[in-house]
Write a structure and sequence with these properties.
With 252 residues, this protein is mainly α. It has 13 helices and three strands. A three-stranded antiparallel sheet has the order 1-3-2. The N and C termini lie far apart (60 Å).
Amino acid sequence: MDWSIQEIAKLAGTTSRTLRHYDDIGLLAPTRIGSNGYRHYDDAALVRLQRILLLRELGLGLPAIGDVLDREASAPHALRSHLEWLRGEQQRLARQVASVEHTIDALEGGERLMAENMFDGFDHTQYKEEVEERWGTDAYAKSDAWWRSMSADEKAAWQQRMSQLGRDWIAAFERGIDPAGDEAQALAQRQFDWLRGIPGTPGGGGAGPSKEYFLGLAEMYVADERFGANYGGQAGAEFVRDAMTAYAEREL
């Protein structure tokens, strides 16, 4: 049994144009092409598409997704890793939903707000031990105090700024621009300014990150796959590193 490209596009919430693009770049080939020229996909192709969409949710760019799929030959093994991450996200989002529902009920019922229930699932301290080990307890204390001091709107704006920067890095990498060129260097400047705005870290406040710190972070983005996911995977992280390195050599 197989499905037409139109059926798969509808089921997956994507477009026929996107699926054709995946074929053009070698990411997802159709199982067969009918006499009318229509593409058709079988079970194995659907599993591959599911993995592609999951990796896109993690922030990986298309070249990085291709690398991951080539390395992970076992679809069940790879999907189990995805499933573990999705279950963790499901639990976190369920806690957030319950937290917001409690707040609405309290507000509408004229009840006293319970602070201990309002922020369940909104955990910004999950990397506390790692930050303290890497940069010291004072660094975490300052950044934590800064984060807690912001309003909900300020936090949302900061997160939006961070997310947009990551998306712009991925888009630049996927277009294959020169990491030492003007566009990539403008992104590196934004990265520098973003780091300067985080109190407590070695790069926060004042003149901003030192050359050594900026270069060290650039290398860490490549070495730690968690950071790589923010920039389109390993190759995307290497692009960010190269752009940051060029910026540091030129400006710091």
